[in-house]
Amino acid sequence: MSTLSTGSVVVDMSATADAAWWAADYARLRGLPLRLVHNSPDLLSVVDPIGSVHPGVEVHQEFTTGPVVDVLVAESETAHLVVVGHRPRSAFAELVKAPTALAVSVRASCPVVAVPAGVRSFDADHPVVVGVHDGDDVPGLLELAFAEAEALDTGVIVVRCAPRSDDIASDVIRDAISEVANGHPGVRVRTELIDGPPAKGLAWHAHFGSAVVVGSHGGLRSVGRTLLRHSTIPVLLVGSHVLVPRPAVPILDGN
User: How much is the pTM?
Assistant: First the structure.
């Protein structure tokens, strides 16, 4: 499994060139190498322009012939991040075939970012938005979001998806936020509570962010699918196989 501090930024070139540009900008900000995975020589036209715009980014290429999802899952074992382009589809079309980002994220060893068409750079002027639910790995999702925000010199908006009536879940989430925030004192943080449909609330808060982080398993799995359909910013999906650093002090389970 990968951690969030090493490895390349791997980008799938089979969807949109925008994803490659976003990945290159992210790699520049993080000081990481960029790995372009493609299955057609026609996609190489973007390589030289990326190198010209981001001369400090180390760029590698990998020509593949296998199924895209399988290839990206294999790449995720040594990657910091897998980036895919995403074009919204109807709910019916997604029932027939899951979006590539979602299909990869449930098996990947690192987070997977779905970049909407038209988004070509990471907007560090806006915070990272993270949605947490009591059915998710709350400390892990928070640690990932705070670590990314710290490295990219931006803040975090934590969106708590827990009913006001669920005191135990609210306490666990609140304690986790406090613990992780204490480990990243330089990161500005704001907390919002959603007492309603998580997908709708997260989508609204995403308008104020640079990227939105959500689990692709557990309580917010269906929310990730909805965000892919509607979000205008990159959606970072975190599957159950992702190895995420934990806070030094254990989070109590509320029992």
Answer: 0.85
